[in-house]
Amino acid sequence: MxxxxxxxxxxxxxxxxxxxxGLYCSGTSLMRRLLNSHPxxxxxxxxxxxxxxxxxxxxxxxxxxxxxxxxxxxxxxxHTVDQVMAGLMHxxxxxxxxxxxxxxxxxxxxxxxxxxxxxxxxxxxxxFIHLIRDPRDAFCSVRExxxxxxxxxxxxxxxxxxxxxCRGIHSGLAWRERPDRYRExxxxxxxxxxxxxxxxxxxxxxEPWAANVLENNxxxxxxxxxxxxxxxxxxxxxxxxxxxxxxxxLGYPLSPASLSRPMPTQA
Length: 267
Fold this sequence. Notes:
This protein has 12 helices and 5 strands. The protein has 267 residues and is of the alpha/beta class. A 5-stranded parallel beta sheet has the order 2-3-1-4-5, sandwiched between helices. It is globular. The termini are far apart.
């Protein structure tokens, strides 16, 4: 197919793509590789469709602002924009799945968690996997990547990382009431109990267990708790000052220093 042969392909009614999201350095790339190894699921590299809010801004404009200035004689329904957007995404990801002879596509971008409401509106049968990791360990990985491969990440401070972690957690909260569509996966459980975690996850997705997903992608738990030896007391304090209440609610033990003082009230 050349570029002149492109045809917008609307997803079949009831089609259920899979979206992966969560804070950067929380295991989303590992989950992408695991899902892509499943015989029924194709999950390629990040599409960056919603990078820098550009496509989201266009979608919002077409969905909410443009119709108000459109001549009523056009009889345009705003939900048509949803169909076009879903068709655009399906037309991008489905050919990748077909090349692998797999019926289901998945898309991994950490920022997807901030767009979960939009993604579910576009694909009413979609399912979402939210990767959650101790923000202190996530910051260790952020700092490592900033030093080795991604210098721009040097601007991600402990406080900023904690704030973005909280934002993602709160984006998923409302969907906890829909366990058929939204599943949280703890990075710590994924790497320490991979088979049990993935068996449960594939049951959620309605997919059979496939042992090859782990054969192709071994997991290691050596990075769990690395913050204890790699972060300074000030860095730990900065993260826990922002995310402490949410961490405590999710069962991540706080450092002794934080436990000895009250957590600030979060807005």
